[in-house]
Amino acid sequence: QLQASGGGLVQPGGSLRLSCSCVTSGFTLGEYAIGWFRQAPGKEREGVSYITSSGGFTRYVDSVKGRFTISRDNAKNMVYLQMNSLKDVDTAVYYCAAQSDERWRNYWTVQRYYGSWGQGTLVTVSS
Fold first, then answer.
1. Are 53 and 8 a contacting pair, CB within 8 Å?
2. C-alpha 14: how far from its chain's center?
3. Most exposed: 13, 32, 37, 69, by fewest CB within 10 Å?
4. Separation CA 13–CA 50 (nearest Å)
5. What is the residue-wise DSSP string for 11-79?
């Protein structure tokens, strides 16, 4: 299973870096593509960003392009989401999820193509 961490309260325009890690022994994050999703209060969960196991293919939802950067360090078994220029609308619980079959990379926002989900981390953007 996965765990997202690094959330918190930040002012508009600020930055946070979220981390996705494994909490289950024997689960190698580097073998999976990872998607970041978020769910804002009263809204559906949406895909935010995606990275393949090699890190060579990434995707972002339009609303975060140019502000968020996904990356991974397979040696450390970690995936990161660097969030800059945060806005009120970025307030949500953020989740990471693992996708074992990267043939679905072009459907990275479709949640049923992910097999493992982590506990979320709350990001609150407010002055």
1. no
2. 18
3. 13
4. 23
5. -TT--EEEEEEE-STT--GGGSEEEEEEE-TTS--EEEEEE-TTS--EEE-GGGTTTEEEEEETTTTEE
Write the pLDDT tens digit of every residue in 44-89: 999 999 999 999 999 999 999 999 999 999 999 999 999 999 999 9
What confidence score (pLDDT) does residue 24 get? 80
Q: Which two tokens stand for residue 101?
A: 């079959």
As a residue count, the chain comes to 127
d(CA 41, CA 82): 22
State residue 98 phi and psi, 5-degree precision: -105, 135
CB 16 within 8 A of CB 124: no
